[in-house]
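Q: What residues go here?
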């Protein structure tokens, strides 16, 4: 019988795949355990020696750090007519009139978005529409460079400089006290990053929901520790402020274009460039008087294809081309953080092998139950690896659930465990697509603005976006 020859081969293949995946998982588990241990130590130190002596500040208690703390908010927009008008109107309501101006970048061949922005700008001095010179879409960085040119022109005409540049997307939900907090800190650092809170549509508990699981831990632990270790700070592209002087210095070195149009993740790279060396990045988690964190909230993709497309751009830009473009640093802390950023592609490939090994295991178990084959036992070494990795997996799931619970509550914390499988599948698919995207870029294909369709919630949805935080705050 054919099974007499195939099943032994599958048995050996299954164990080899398990061994390879287990060894890779063990390396990743050690890395995560060290990082988690440092985070726990950091949190305990602040709780015992800082928060026990000083009362936690709220954003309302802060004053402006600079006498002229005007902020420019950059919003690049391509085919955003369904959301940009509501987003801008909410920004103008949330932020009191005064020391800010919103610059919205549109394209000549996107009349619907131009009309939506123009309608929102009617009667407002805090909103300026900027039309890019070329038809769209070019790249997000190119659109941002047009906004930078408009800001520099305004500074010359008004003989007055801005203190910082804030980035937002066309679907963002902003906090009323965001500008006060950013204005207070932007004079102290090259980059100030606020937490990002993914929200999900009710119809997408699994696809959109996995973003919440990832960002809860990313902006509750990893970014906090990144600043604590003194490593450079990547920008999330929304809810972040760049010091105007830092951008001007970079602009002088890049022919007036601080945003790199050749990068697939220009926001990530810009943050690292501005905060490496002696420059500083701040990741701030601060509540208002109502107990809510000052953060940027937005709805992430709720369809599989959109999620894969978005995450493939992140992987290609950070894990693949970021390696080529940014290289490595002399300091171990910086290199450690960059290695953690860039392991996404390898992790996805290892996960794919692990899932194939699980499928083979199920096939072999069925064959054994039917009497076609007698499975060979795993080696003692592989058995030990499997036990260690199982323990590490339980720890990772419990820790992630704690962050999700602090942000979204018990139901989402419980859902985050099975949602890990969904996240892994999306990341595997995104990694394969990212490799293709990166390969095409190597042979000369231009960088394109791969954006997903956005939507803005109605008033009832916005009122519900008030999560309470209890993990990882800092003053």
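A:
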């Amino acid at each position: 019988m054919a099974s007499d020859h195939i099943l032994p081969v599958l048995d050996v293949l299954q164990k080899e795949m398990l061994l390879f995946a287990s060894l890779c998982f063990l390396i990743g588990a050690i890395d995560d355990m060290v990082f988690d241990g440092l985070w726990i130590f950091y949190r305990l130190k602040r709780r015992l020696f800082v928060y026990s002596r000083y009362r936690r500040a709220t954003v309302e208690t802060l004053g402006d750090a600079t006498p002229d703390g005007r902020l420019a908010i950059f919003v690049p927009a391509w085919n955003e007519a369904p959301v940009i008008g509501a987003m801008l109107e909410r920004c103008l309501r949330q932020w009191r009139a005064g020391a800010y101006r919103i610059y919205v970048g549109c394209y000549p061949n996107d009349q619907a978005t131009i009309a939506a922005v123009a309608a929102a700008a009617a009667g407002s001095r805090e909103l300026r529409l900027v039309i890019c010179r070329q038809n769209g879409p070019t790249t997000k960085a190119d659109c941002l460079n047009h906004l930078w040119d408009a800001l520099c022109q305004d500074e010359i005409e008004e003989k007055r400089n801005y203190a910082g540049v804030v980035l937002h997307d066309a679907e963002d939900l902003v906090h009323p006290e965001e500008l006060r907090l950013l204005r207070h800190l932007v004079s102290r650092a090259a980059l100030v990053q606020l937490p990002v809170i993914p929200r999900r549509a009710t119809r997408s508990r699994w696809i959109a929901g996995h973003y919440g699981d990832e960002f809860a831990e990313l902006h509750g632990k990893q970014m906090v520790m990144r600043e604590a270790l003194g490593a450079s700070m990547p920008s999330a592209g929304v809810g972040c402020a760049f010091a105007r002087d830092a951008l001007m210095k970079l602009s002088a070195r890049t022919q007036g274009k601080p945003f790199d149009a050749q990068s697939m993740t220009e926001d990530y790279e810009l943050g690292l460039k501005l905060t490496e060396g002696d420059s500083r990045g701040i990741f701030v988690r601060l509540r208002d008087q109502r107990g809510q964190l000052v953060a940027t909230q937005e709805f992430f993709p709720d369809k599989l294809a959109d999620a894969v497309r978005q995450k493939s751009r992140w992987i290609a830009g950070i894990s693949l081309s970021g390696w080529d473009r940014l290289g490595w640093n002399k300091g171990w802390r910086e290199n450690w953080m960059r290695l953690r950023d860039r392991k996404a592609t390898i992790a996805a490939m290892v996960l794919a092998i692990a899932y194939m090994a699980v499928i083979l295991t199920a096939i072999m178990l069925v064959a054994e139950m039917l009497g076609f084959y007698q499975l060979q036992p795993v080696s003692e070494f592989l058995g030990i690896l499997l036990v260690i990795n199982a323990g590490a997996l339980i720890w990772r799931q419990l820790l992630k659930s704690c962050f999700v619970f602090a942000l979204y509550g018990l139901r989402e914390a419980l859902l985050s465990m099975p949602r890990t499988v969904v996240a892994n599948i999306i990341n595997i698919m995104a990694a394969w697509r990212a490799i293709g995207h990166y390969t095409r870029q190597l042979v000369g294909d231009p960088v394109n603005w791969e954006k997903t369709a956005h939507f803005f919630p109605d008033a009832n949805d916005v009122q519900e976006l008030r999560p309470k935080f209890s993990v990882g705050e800092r003053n």
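A: Context that may help when evaluating the design: The chain has one domain: 1-475. DSSP finds 14 helices and nine strands in the chain.
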